[in-house]
Amino acid sequence: MIDDVFKQDMATVKINSTKRTKGEARRQAIEAEARQVLLSEGYACLSLRTIASSLGMSVGNLQYYFPTKDDLVEAIITREIETSLSVLWEIPWDPATPDLCTRAAVSALLHHHASDAGQFYAIAEFLALHDPRYALLKTKGYAFVFSYIEQLVGLMAPHLETDRRARLAQVLVALIDGASLQVQFAHASSLGDGVDALANDIAFAVEQLLENWS
């Protein structure tokens, strides 16, 4: 009896897991198609009807996953933020060489933004200027990045007062933001090693600030 119940429970788990897997796969397909439209044609050209038609599904079926256009765009931006953060989480931290950690973090973000992720980042920034919903997403994303950078600054200068550490983290995030836009709109021939060189320059500038503040 116990074995039969166990088998039934496991069968239910497998069925539910399959449903979740299929549902997640469909969500990702919708997001991927919508993301491509945003990148190639812009926000104004994005519509649920167009996405549904491209994927061979009804609008009603698509709305099961994303009731509105803004729900869909919000999901895409959220996934982009998660992807950007994963780039940072993959960088190993070594307290013995904080300067190398800083260079690695800046370089990883700039290389990430040299891809179409940087173009999407620019679109998300524009949307945040005009819609509180997207502005809130931007604020949350920046909070995670700022927290990471502030901890990195703490490795570089553990003696620094909290307010100065936060200020330096703001400066570093601002430099990364500006450099990300430059990398995204730079000519293709200036990328590659140029991204790493730019990352080194940013890290060096921060180190100089640290020396002046110490």
TrEMBL record:
Entry keyword Transcription regulation: yes
Signal peptide per UniProt: none
DNA-binding positions: 47-66
Keywords: DNA-binding, Transcription, Transcription regulation
Ranges where the HTH tetR-type domain occurs: 24-84
GO MF terms held by the record: DNA-binding transcription factor activity; transcription cis-regulatory region binding
InterPro entries: Homeodomain-like_sf, HTH-type_TetR-like_transc_reg, HTH_TetR, Tet_transcr_reg_TetR-rel_C_sf
Pfam family, one: TetR_N
Protein name: TetR/AcrR family transcriptional regulator
Annotated source species: Exilibacterium tricleocarpae
